[in-house]
Amino acid sequence: MTELSFAKSFLSTLDSRPVKLQSDYVADPKTFEPKGPYTLPRMPHPMRRPTTTPTAPGSAPSFRISLKSLRNPPLDLTLSAQTPQTSILELKQAVAEHLGLKGTEKIRLLYAKKPCADSKSVKDVVGDGVSEGKEGPEFSVMVMGGLPGASGEGKEAEGENSDAQMEDAPVTAEGSSGVKVLKSEEFWENLKGFLLQRVRSQRVAEETLVMFREAWLEKGSSLK
Q: Is the bond preceding 57 in cis, omega lying within 30 degrees of 0?
């Protein structure tokens, strides 16, 4: 048999068979030759699992928090890797540690000119507007009474002499002064914030502010 005749007979045999198996095709178990499972060879060096820890879904973002004060003592502190669950008390403790204070009783934190309670978190004060990759909120710091010994012992005597000289020297005020300050709404808003820090009660602070303002309108409006 020549190669050409063999090829023709082989192709004719293939044409008689279906190109694809039918959907209901079932192999005959009697004629089916079972084959053993194929096992891949082992690698010379086993693959290592990734060591990076995936971020848990719903985890809180981290951001930086700025704590600044322009008064005594001057302060510009930045806390990195903070979360929205960070409490105001923890921020005060960081400020106390930075300034060398023993406690947080004299430290006040303000956000948007409003005092922040120790029991609240950053999320309670700022809200959900802070996300990862953005600059965090900025809090204003007030140390009631200033920092003890911040001016140094050498400046105490100088301060006493300057106080004696200022009694005879004329006082030059910048901006609004006198009765004009008392007539501005900004003065009463600042006074309200101060009272709220001291008494720590919204109701008592508002009642005291109303009493002060009514007394000023009744007796102090005649001042010039």
A: no
Cα 105 from Cα 89, distance rounded (Å): 10
Would you call 60 helix, strand, or coil by DSSP?
Answer: coil
Three-state DSSP at 136 gives: coil
Q: Torsions phi, psi of 160, nearest 5? A: -65, -40
Sheet containing 107-111: give its strands across. Answer: 75-82, 63-69, 138-143, 107-111, 114-115
CA Rg value for the chain: 40
Give the three-state DSSP class for 67.
strand
- What whole-number distance in Å separates Cα of residue 48 and Cα of residue 55? 20
pTM (whole model) above 0.70? no
Neighbours of 95 (CB within 10 A): 22
Instruction: Tell me the pLDDT band of 59, cut-offs 50, 70 and 90.
Output: low
